[in-house]
């Protein structure tokens, strides 16, 4: 009888262990899933607060949308994915991503927007919403404000605890790169050439600093052979005339509809109206040219591919469940 009782007790203990183990597994699985209504119970005003803050900031500073889109791209394209690591400040012991040379030109309006949203959300639902979810959602909402396509943003990301400047090198496209190098950056992250070209369509809004194009426009007097329309080159030279004295001097990436998200950027490229060397590369390279031509003819199709590519980008290597953290401040780890 004693042996039977002991066996029974052991079986119950073992069963309890497995039940507990399964509960833990199920909790981890549920915590790991991104959902559209992740904050429905914990922060019901999440979407409203973001929309109100985004609208106010964009009206106050019309460059905010393009700035935030660029910030989002520079965060998610890195190997650590969409974890808001680009928002972290450097410390005396570590140089962060945002202080890498390629990120020094990231506009302050985008950082300010995230701070405003985070502050409002912390007052409404403390220690609940991640900075990475804020950045992903704000980017989508700003694109819609400019006339861009809607796409679903799945929520439940957590923020990364590390941000290292040296990890940025080689993972973000530079205007000076060849098209082969730029395509490689995106294909290594799982994007097709078509998706890469669509994401390049983000240049339909925003601006580029004159220092980025100075060597291209001043080393070629006529624009011949460079991909630039000759008259456009002369206009860029005049606009950028004082760039050495004023390093913040910049020009719109899309001179036709600079504040509207549309397909005019692609229509500009065959006319030699691209600002950056990489813009011209999209039209001159045989691997990307067909997509430029299709997007230029069909805005609906461009929007479709752009939206799905942005959603895909927003899901790269996200941290969920017990990974990462919910930062109290977006510029420093807890």
UniProtKB/TrEMBL annotation:
One of the GO biological process terms: response to oxidative stress
TM regions (residue ranges): 12-29
Amino acids binding Ca(2+) 1: 75, 81, 83, 85, 97
Cysteine disulfide partners in this protein: 43-125, 76-82, 131-330, 210-240
Ranges of residues in domain Plant heme peroxidase family profile: 33-334
PROSITE patterns registered for this protein in UniProt: PEROXIDASE_1, PEROXIDASE_4
GO CC terms: extracellular region
A GO term for molecular function: heme binding
Signal peptide limits: none
InterPro entries: Haem_peroxidase, Haem_peroxidase_sf, Peroxidase_pln, Peroxidases_heam-ligand_BS, Secretory_peroxidase
Localization: Secreted
Site for Transition state stabilizer, residues: 70
Cofactor note: Binds 1 heme b (iron(II)-protoporphyrin IX) group per subunit.
Keyword DNA-binding: no
Entry keyword set: Calcium, Disulfide bond, Heme, Hydrogen peroxide, Iron, Membrane, Metal-binding, Oxidoreductase, Peroxidase, Secreted, Signal, Transmembrane, Transmembrane helix
Source organism, top-level taxon: Eukaryota
List of residues binding heme b: 203
Catalytic activity from the UniProt record: 2 a phenolic donor + H2O2 = 2 a phenolic radical donor + 2 H2O
Active site: 74
EC number(s) given by UniProt: 1.11.1.7
Residues that coordinate or bind Ca(2+) 2: 204, 254, 257, 262
Binding site for substrate: 173
Family under the similarity heading: Belongs to the peroxidase family. Ascorbate peroxidase subfamily. Belongs to the peroxidase family. Classical plant (class III) peroxidase subfamily.
Entry-linked PANTHER family: PEROXIDASE 31, PTHR31517
Role: Removal of H(2)O(2), oxidation of toxic reductants, biosynthesis and degradation of lignin, suberization, auxin catabolism, response to environmental stresses such as wounding, pathogen attack and oxidative stress.
Descriptive protein name: Peroxidase
Provenance organism: Medicago truncatula
């Amino acid at each position: 009888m004693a042996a039977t009782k002991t066996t029974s007790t052991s079986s119950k203990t073992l069963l309890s262990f497995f039940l507990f183990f399964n509960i833990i597994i199920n909790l981890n699985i549920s915590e790991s899933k991104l959902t559209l209504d992740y904050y429905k119970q914990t922060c019901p005003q999440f979407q409203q607060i973001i929309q109100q803050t985004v609208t106010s900031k964009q009206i106050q500073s019309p460059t905010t949308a393009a700035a935030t889109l660029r910030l989002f791209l520079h965060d998610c394209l890195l190997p650590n994915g969409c974890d808001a690591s680009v928002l972290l400040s450097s410390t005396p012991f570590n140089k962060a991503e945002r202080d890498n040379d390629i990120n020094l030109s990231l506009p302050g309006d985008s950082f300010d927007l995230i701070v405003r949203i985070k502050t409002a959300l912390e007052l409404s639902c403390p220690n609940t919403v991640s900075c990475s979810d804020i950045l992903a959602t704000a980017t989508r909402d700003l694109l819609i404000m400019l006339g861009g396509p809607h796409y679903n943003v799945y929520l439940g990301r957590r923020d990364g605890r590390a941000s290292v400047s040296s990890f940025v090198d080689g993972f973000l496209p530079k205007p000076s790169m060849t098209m082969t190098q730029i395509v490689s950056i995106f294909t290594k992250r799982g994007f097709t050439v078509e998706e890469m070209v669509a994401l390049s369509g983000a240049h339909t809004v925003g601006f580029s600093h004159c220092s980025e194009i100075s060597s291209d426009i001043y080393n070629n007097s006529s624009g011949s052979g460079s991909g630039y329309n000759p008259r456009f080159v002369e206009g860029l030279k005049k606009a950028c005339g004082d760039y050495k004295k004023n390093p913040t001097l910049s020009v719109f990436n899309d001179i036709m509809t600079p504040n509207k998200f549309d397909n005019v950027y692609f229509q500009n490229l065959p006319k030699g109206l691209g600002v950056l060397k990489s813009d011209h590369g999209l039209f001159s390279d045989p691997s990307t040219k067909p997509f430029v031509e299709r997007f230029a003819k069909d805005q609906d199709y461009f929007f479709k591919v752009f939206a799905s590519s942005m959603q895909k980008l927003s899901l790269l290597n996200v941290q969920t469940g017990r990974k990462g953290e919910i930062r109290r401040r977006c510029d420093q780890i807890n």
